[in-house]
Every structure is written in C-alpha cells, then in structure tokens.
C-alpha cells in the first residue's frame, strides 16, 4: 500500500518547507518575526562587524575580534533560522522553549561584563532584549488563553 503524502514521496525541500494547514496564531507569528530579526542581526554581525561595533560603542577591533564578531553573527543567524522554522510548526512548545532560553541569557552574559571580559554594549543589548522578547512571547501565550488559571 502506497501512502501518497509520506516523507519518502516528498523531497527534502518539500518536507522542510511544509507548514500545517490554517493560519498561524499570534504566538507563532511573534516567534517567526523574532527569528527574522535574529537573522538580520546575525547577518549584520557577520557582514558588517565594524558597523555593529560602532553601534554597540565598542573599542576598535584588534587581533581576532572582528572574526569573533562574525562568529557571533553566524550563531545568532542560526538561532534565527531555527526560530523561523520552529515558528512555522505552530507548536506552542517550541515558542515557549524560546522563553526559557532567553531568560537564561542575562545570567550567562552579565558575568562576562562584571569580570571585564566583554564591553557593556553587546552584553547589555542581548541581556536586555532577550528577556523582553521572552516576556512578549509569554504574554501572547497567556493572552491566547492556553495557560492554566
């Protein structure tokens, strides 16, 4: 018996690009656009590290710092890629997992600033933005009425 729509009968691209039927909810749309933002920010870090350095009020690069900035850009863009594709699944579990990882960001980054290992600009940009984006996702989830009362 042949199953018409099995993964074996579709290409890798078809499987990767498929989305559930119907309209995505507010939480999925929010997560999708957060992913797009991460892709753009990661691209800026990778393609224009000196511009990002200036925007974050960092000292001029020396040694391998420009390469490390590009490495951060790759990591941020990959996170954005996963947010975009995770949002396309429309699974609340994916969107809520982004709340958990974003809340951890300040706890992981602030010690780098306080020990003098990194400048304030990039640390505070991520340490402030990520929890705010997490709060946005959490509030959207609560507003959808799916949270226990």
Structure characterization notes:
The protein is built from 6 helices and no strands. With 149 residues, the protein is mostly helical. It has one domain. Helix 2 crosses helix 3 (49-55), helix 2 (26-47) runs antiparallel to helix 6 (120-143) and helix 5 runs antiparallel to helix 6.
Q: Based on CA inertia axes, which overall geometry fits?
A: globular
Distance between the termini: 47 Å
Mean pLDDT: 89
The major sheet is characterized as: none
Class inferred from helices and paired strands: mainly alpha
Number of E-state strands? 0
Strand content: under 5%
Helix amount: over 70%
**Helix-strand sequence:** HHHHHH
Count of runs of 4 or more consecutive helical residues: 6
How many structural domains in the coordinates? Answer: 1
Radius of gyration: 19 Å
Weakly predicted, low-confidence segments:
none
Quick gist of this model?
The protein has 149 residues and is mainly alpha-helical. Helices cover 71% and strands 0% of the residues. The chain has six helices and no strands.
Give me some keywords for this one.
149 residues, single chain, mainly alpha
What secondary-structure arrangement, pairings included, does this model have?
Blueprint: H1 12-17, H2 26-47, H3 49-55, H4 65-88, H5 92-114, H6 120-143
